[in-house]
Amino acid sequence: MKTKRFSDAMEQALNKQMTREAFQAQVYLSYASWAEVNSFSGIANFLYKHMHEEREHMFKILKFINDRGGEAKIEAIDAPAENPKNIEDCLKKTLQHEIDNSQEIDKLVNQAFEEKDWATFSFTQWFVKEQIEEETLINDLLDKYNLASKQKDGNANYYELDKDLNKAPQSAEIPREEEF
Ligand code: FEO
Hints:
The chain is mainly α. The protein has five helices and no strands. The chain has one domain: Ferritin, core subunit, four-helix bundle (Ferritin), CATH 1.20.1260.10. It has helices at residues 8-37, 41-67, 87-114, 118-150, 156-167. Helix 3 (87-114) runs antiparallel to helix 4 (118-150).
């Protein structure tokens, strides 16, 4: 049994964020499935891959909690909200989820600062940077969507957008992709 190296309050806050990252994964999973059913396979692939990134974030926090002598608590994950209405709605909702998540990360950073818990403070810096990258990524995709949707020559622009999304950088791959 390891000696606990953070406060009970910090353990609780980290556990809450761990479940929040699992929720983020559920959101991406549900939006990905929605995109796939609606024939946007590139967008679906992008969202499926991102779902795995969110699971990695969850796991990163789980390991930190346990490695620092706490106990990760696996709890129920809230159901994602209803499906998006269209691609624009999907991208806007995705961005809002990321912004909301950034605010939760900021709360953790503040708490670590207030408690002078420099180990957790240092750990949370990775998430601060990650959130900047993710917000930028989704904002860029929204820009692409806006450009594509302003032209009026049919679905060709959506087709191009779908291809772009498929190629958007992600660190996680879809597991067993070769089986699809
Ligand atoms: Fe792990 Fe996209 O927040």
